[in-house]
Each structure stands twice: as C-alpha cells, then as structure tokens.
Amino acid sequence: MANTTSTETLPAKPSARSLTVMLWIVATGFFMQTLDSTIVNTALPAMATSLGELPLRMQSVVIAYSLTMAVMIPVSGWLADKLGTRRVFMSAIFVFSVGSLLCASAHTLSQLVLWRILQGAGGAMLLPVGRLAVLRVFPAERYLPALSFVAIPGLIGPLIGPTLGGWLVKIASWHWIFLINVPVGVVGVIATFIFMPDSRNPDTAKFDLKGYLLLIVAMIAISMALDGHSEFGFAHATVLVLLILSLGFFTAYGLHAVRTPQPIFSLDLFRIHTFSVGILGNLFARIGSGAMPYLLPLLLQVSLGYSAFEAGLMMLPVAAAGMTSKRLVTRLIFRYGYRRVLVTNTVLVGLAMASFALMGAHQPLWLRLVQLAFFGGVNSMQFTAMNTLTLKDLGTGGASSGNSLFSLVQMLSMSLGVTVAGAMLTTFTGIIPRVTEANTLPAFHATFVCVGIITAGTSWIFAQLAHDIRRPAPKTDPSERT
C-alpha cells in the first residue's frame, strides 16, 4: 500500500529455531483463515435446521465473513506498520478465535452473522500481516522458500474445507466447525508472543481514512443491494437507491484518489494494461467461481438428498482436478498467450457452471463425478491465469498496493458471488411455478445457467488483451497464486 516510508524498526536477528516456529505460526494462521472460507458451506443445511431457518436463506453466513475480510484487508498493512507485526498478528489470532467461539454459541441467524463478522475481522489480518512479518525477518535469498511454505496450508484449506465440514457435522455437530479453531488459536497466541519478532515503521504515513470509508460504504452498499430483496425484503426502490449509492461512492473514491498524494489505492495502477484487465476480469469472473462452493453443497443436500459428509466427499474431484491442472495452464500460456487461453477458458468455465443445470436425481454417479472434475480443472486454470496476468507487470514499485487491491477484489468478488447466487435462488424459487420446498431443483438449475452466462460473458474483458502477452509472472509470492 502506498502509505509507508522506508524507515523501519526491525527486530534483532532471530535464531533459526524462532524462524522455523514463526513460519509454522504464520502458515497455521493462513490455514485457519482459508479453511473457514469454505468449511461452512456443507454445514449450512444443518445450521439452518438448528437455527430454525430455511437452507436457501443462509447465504449471509458466508457473505458476512468474506465481505468483512474485503473491508479489513486495506487497513491490515497500516496497522502492522503502526503497532508492530507481532502485536497485530497476535491480536488477529485472538479476535479470530473469540469470533469462532461466539459463532459456535450462536442461537439465531442474526447472532451467527454478527460473530462471523468478528471472525472475519481477525481472519483478514492473518495472511497479510503474517506475510509482512516473514518478509521483514527472513533474508532475501530465503523469501521464496519461506513464502512457499506459508502458502501451502492456504492452498489446502479451501480444498479440504467442504469435506471436513461435512465430516464434523456427521460425527458431532456444526458447532465444531468453529470450536476446532479455539485450541489452535490459544496455542497460536502464546507461540506468537514467544517466537515472532516484532517490527514496525515509526514513520508510517497518515492513514487514508477518507478513501477507506468511501470504499467501505461502496462495497457494503453494493452487497446489500444485491442481497437486500431476498435476504432483508427490501423494496425494489431501496435496492435501486443502494446500487446508485454504491456507484456514487466508488466514483467519489476515484476523484479522491486523483487529488490525494498517498491514496489507499493509487489509480496509477490502472495505467498498467495487464493489471487493469486482470483486476476487472478477476472481479467479474470470480462472481461465478465464488457462487459455486456455496451452490454445489447446497444442491447436493437440499435437492438431491445427500448428507453433509457425502456432499463434502463430492467436492474432492473438484479439488483433485484443480491441483492437477495447475501445471498445464503455464504451458498453454507460453504456447498460445494469455488472451487466447483466458478467452477460451472463461467460456469453458461458464459452460461447466451452466452444465450443472442438467444434474438430476437419476444422473449416473460417474457422470456427476466427471462433471465436477471438469469444472474443478478449468476453474483452477482460470484462477492461475487470471492471477499471474494481474501481477506480472506490477514491478517492485506497485507490488504492495497492487497486491492489496488484488486481495480486496478476491474477497469482494467471493462475497458478491454468494450474494448473487442467494438472490437468484430466492427469485427463481418465487417465480418458477413448479418449485416447492420439497422440489427446489428447478430453482438451482436456473441459477446455474445464469451464473454460467455471467462468467462466460467475462471473456469479453480478456479479449481486450494483446495477442502476444505470454510471459507468466515471476513467482515472488506464491500465496497470491490461488
């Protein structure tokens, strides 16, 4: 972020043992944060039954977490500079753990959403502050292996989340999805206090509070506009006002950033063609990708009669195919270029999403598994290609601000994806005549088709790229490659 100067207070050189323990602390924190972004998906029907809610009205549990993370990401780096990496990271683990404990004790949906916001506020600071702490104490020649070690648990968390969530529901209850974080958090707070070196920047520039507030209001307004009619029963006029308000505040931030010497995100970043196309493509393509982890477990349980554990197991082909296809996309980019790969693959991802409209009770299991694996493969290739395109030309000057903005867009689009999916499900449940509480399959089918169309349409953004862009980004920060 463009709000710090170069003078920093660095800790004394830590021992090799302290460095190793510190890596494990940061990696575990990243794992907890990413795990909780997907672990609740398979447990939503069980939560709904326990809280006396409808399963199709539980999207706010997911939205609250991801939207809060998007809101908190811009301030995390400034807090670490001002207060010190150890203090902020320790506080982040504490807040995340307390939020998890309160989520497990929730008796109403409103309480659960409120505590998910608290949990998200802590989780948002775990990765950026932990990564900053690693960068400040490790020598340059050890950056890549250190960041790679930290990144691996973050890649595993979202993959095993649905299966682990379903398993915990099966052997215990949905409350244990949150309770498992508490003992890990207690150990993490103690270990951080003992082993993590502290560093801060005493010359930290004044935080761009005005720009931050403009962005927060804009993000919350657009989320409430998209979810307001289905979740809160807002009238259409209120939804329209919120959409206009969101557009107005985003515009106001743009005008503010032009006049401010050190805005929270500089608009100069958008002069980099690959970054601007990558950010816009990530924002809209990830709406569909963010909707799928919410829609698929819900479809399997609510419409097809799967248990939570069985629905979690069905997500394994998605994860396995995603991990397998990551190596393929780099070769394709070198051979065909970013433009051709992203335009083609975005359409394939959209078609894969829309193909779930063909899923029914009599579909053979093998075909269902192939369908899930194909989606997992092309979706993983999409993430890798979009992410490397976005970061490849930032250079050292814009890396900090660009990475922060990129992380914000990832979290915001994940939130918007669940918001859009939930709104569509509610709308189609009300307008399709044959949809009942016992037969929700047509509403899911219509939602998958719409999500697929939205995603495939994003290919137009990637079509603006030049034909000869082929060089992937250097692997400076593997944690951003998911």
UniProtKB/TrEMBL annotation:
Annotated membrane topology: Multi-pass membrane protein
Which Gene3D superfamilies does the UniProt record give? MFS general substrate transporter like domains, Multidrug resistance protein D
Q: Name one Pfam family in it.
A: MFS_1
Coiled coil (UniProt feature): none
An example of a GO molecular function for this protein is: transmembrane transporter activity
UniProt-recorded name of the protein: Putative transport protein HsrA
Q: Which intervals hold domain Major facilitator superfamily (MFS) profile? A: 22-470
- Provide this UniProt record's keywords sorted from A to Z: Cell membrane, Membrane, Transmembrane, Transmembrane helix, Transport
Encoding gene (name):
hsrA_1
Q: For this UniProt entry, what's an example GO CC term?
A: plasma membrane
Tell me where the transmembrane regions lie: 21-40, 60-80, 87-107, 113-134, 146-168, 174-195, 207-226, 232-257, 269-288, 294-320, 341-359, 365-385, 405-431, 443-463
- Where mainly located? membrane
List the source organism.
Answer: Paraburkholderia humisilvae
This protein's source sits in the domain of life called Bacteria
- Where does this protein reside within or beyond the cell? Cell membrane
